[in-house]
Amino acid sequence: MRSIDVAERRARLAVRHRLAAATRTDQVTEIAKSLVVLHATDPATVFLSVGARSHTVTPVDVERALYDERTLLRMLAMRRTMFVAPTELVPVLQASCADALAHKQRRTYGKYIEQAGVVDGDVWSWLAEVEAETHDALLAKGAATGSQLSKAVPRLRTQVNTAPEKAYSKPTNITTWVLVTLGCEGRIVRGRPNGSWTSSQYTWEPIESWLPAGVPALPTEQARAELLRQWLRAFGPAPITDLKWWTGWGLGEVRKALTDLDVVEVDLDGTTGLLLADNAEPVAAPEPWTALLPALDPTPMGWQSRDWYLGPHAPALFDTNGNVGPTIWWNGRIVGGWAQRADGEIVYRLLEDVGADAVAMIEAEVARTTEWFGEVRAIPRFRTPLQRELTA
Length: 392
Hints:
This protein is 42% helix and 16% strand.
């Protein structure tokens, strides 16, 4: 069993994730492919993750890839988390993750409607009719907000109280439920937001706007194996528990999908890791590099076992729900954090001594990130301890 030490894992991270200067590119979709998907719970993350791995890309370039060229698509997938994915990967994500999620969402929302007693007859047939009407309305309009669709499809305004016995609960219409389910099913997609690139208020469009024939169907097991293959190429080597955590699947499902791949076991300082057999050659350390990565960036959120690049800094940089804030990287490890203040200033704090040369490179990245934001102010979706201190 070959041993891969922390230094080589950090070198692989730098090269595979396009963080070393020589590996950066201005091809937006290629950056997404390098990371499998871009984390998109916070809309700003998508743009800042691309910016950190490029030379001259601007927010306009990312918007072009998303909404004009449509080589990227926003969808719920692993762990019911929002991602931006290369469109060619959408069938894999749909069959491996989203189809099961759509089934779970429909079952949950259908039970709420059934319990509320607001529908005469079979709830599931009624819900299927509403979903079909909504999709048809969106095909006719081309793009619409939830509010606009609820006017076109009156049954979307059906009110349901999910917890009538609770004083705090109140009736809400089913518009969002239907739209989220249709999105998980791959029939509609979140389009251009109403506002800047940091906005999370999206219009909806039919999937046919991105994929004219819809999402091609794949066998579930084939899709799961392909998703693990892509993850291992980008994030391997790693213990199987990291694959289980990232996908959100059961351990048995992960093991079964791995049987379709040619993988080898390697020693990760006493822990067994997995690596694609055709990706096992040693990787040399690149030239010294630094990066300012945004909150929820795919790199720090790519593994459950993080000590080899995070060290002792989790209490300052993660919130209580496991969300990572903005991080500063030096040669494959996290050494500090940063934040944007209300006046636009980028402020940071190093959590360990990295030397004068590293500080000079970090300052250059701070200046570049400041330019990226321009006049835009990103309001964080969550706050970490260090972020709160830096913006106080």
